[in-house]
Each structure stands twice: as C-alpha cells, then as structure tokens.
Amino acid sequence: MSMLATAVINLIPLDVPVGWSDPPPVNMVEAVLLLGGIPLLLFTAISVAVYLPSIVRGESLAPGQPPVENQWLGGPRTGTAELKGPESEDSDSGGASGRW
C-alpha cells in the first residue's frame, strides 16, 4: 500500500457505529402506527384537499354525470360574440396568413 492510502485509512474510522450492532427493541404498536398511520393520514389529507372545494361549491361527486358542455375556461363570458372575426383589422386569427 502506498503511504497516502495508509494515511487515508487511518483518518477514516472503520468501526461499527454505536447502537448498530445491538439496536433497541421496537414496540409493535409504534411500528404499526408509524408505518400504517402516517400513509393513512396523508391519504385522508389529500382526499379532503381534493374533494372539499367541490363539496363547498355544492357540486355532485357522483360518477356518471353528463359532461359540462360549452365550457371555456378563461374565455370571454358572453360567448363567441365577443371575439374578433378574421375580417376585422386588428385580428390576429385566421391561421397562416401567407404574407411576404
């Protein structure tokens, strides 16, 4: 071995950490609460965070409801009559314009 390798080995403690070879016994009730209770608590908290706003608004949570039609999120409130047509001067609609 080189002298550098020997110096590095002497600096790093290679002993087993205290308590690793003889860990304290684990209480079964604590283990079940820790490994089962925390995931159950997280599942419940996420479910409440997802469904609570809908329940507060009074929406139905039953499956099989017909989809909401004519819903435009963030669009004009009065419908498509508020939109500018392709023939207006300041409209950017109409797809590719082909101007050179």
How far the N terminus sits from the C terminus, by CA atoms, comes to 76 Å
Principal-axis shape equals: elongated
Helix content: 25-40%
The Rg value, from CA coordinates, equals 33 Å
Provide the succession of SSEs: HH
> How many β strands by DSSP?
0
Mean pLDDT: 77
Strand content: under 5%
Helix vs. strand class: mainly alpha
Give the biggest beta sheet: none
Topology:
Elements: H1 3-11, H2 28-57
How would you explain this protein's 3D organization?
The chain has 100 residues and is mainly α. The protein contains two helices and no strands. The longest helix is centred in the middle third of the chain and has 30 residues, at 28-57. It is elongated and about 85 Å long. The chain starts with a helix and ends in a 43-residue tail after the last helix.
Précis, in short:
With 100 residues, the chain is mainly α.
